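Quick one:
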Amino acid sequence: MVARGTSCIRRLGDGEGPQTKGFRRFFANRKVTLERLIASWPQQTVAAVAGRHVLAIQDTSEIKFNTTAQRRRGLGEIAKGQAHGALLHAMVAVDADDGACLGLVGGTIWTRAGRVTVAHGERALGDRESRRWLDTAHAARTVLDQAASITVVADRESDIYAEWATLPDHKLHLLTRVMHDRQLADSTTLYEAAAKLSFVDTRTIELKATPKRIAREATLSLRFGSVQLKRPRKAGVKELPDAVELTLVEAVELEPPQGVEPVHWRLLTTHQVDKAMDAWQIVDWYRRRWTIEQFFRVLKTQGFRIEDSQLDSADTLLKLIAVAAKAAVISLQLVQVRDGRSNLHASVAFEPSQIDALAALQARYKARTPRQSNPHPNASLAWAAWIIARLGGWDGYPSSRPPGPITFKHGLDYFHAFALGWAVRDVSTP
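Output:
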């Protein structure tokens, strides 16, 4: 998938030939389970996170598949009942300092069996889909055990009292955007407490383009303070503490351009915030959440186009998503390291035999001038990405436009064919 830049089984194989049939048999094999595929996600991540402060960023994306009333393929409702498909909840590990994607941590993939008739607030936490936020964060402790510290970052849907009350410890922190105006222990509300705080600083930031927003600059005003969340009156939380103490960081665009929705981020965190510099650090870590949005785009609209799959059953579609998710992260890592800012080792994306093949290819690009030489440390991921980009047609000059996903795709096409030959170079025929 990484080499060909697609999740289409026919394009991965040979049309309707034996290779394609082999791929289909793989996904239909009962021994190939969704759980085992997801369990393989963090194999390279474990080593990559060692000694780092890791942002464990999690989010959920709906994956829509084309269906008809006569051909639902076993898929449940998504998009508030307007479509059918699957849901992918994933967590990616990101270096807190340089923003490098370190790999997948974990997650879950599912399709809904039917509509739930019991109201959300009346169900125990274990019976809600929102349980995935806690389960994924809990599982991250094992995968990220070698990290120096962990900050779980998420958007509004992860603002769950049980998370605040049970997850944090000396090594694991939480950073989440506020979902709604919560009750505080002093009988006021979160928004009321925020309104009493004074703005202490301003900063202009770059906003990236999204489907709902054009790229632009925004000048944000900052305020922060301590709050105590009161335990809500809901099912399944009576055994939790009466209150939890957190820090509220609010960044708001007070004077947005005319006709533009202002930026307004209310962030809750378990990190201690004593001064404006600390609060801006919280904002910057939250902005790293952009990485998981990129991951979903590579998986869906701007890369593997997983939603175009025509596999016949929900079971095989969920497995395909699991494989494509790992491929999407590798592709994202290659694009990220093209400028050499990351110090990741090539082993986060390539096997040892493939790194040997890359070293052999490196000899082809030994230039007479330093400007066209690989500037990155040997066996680093940036070193590997430079070689792949050259294979894809990039000229290697620092002044040239950086290689993009299409260049990397062409380079990977060539590389994987070469690596296969390299692996059997010492095999002799009788």
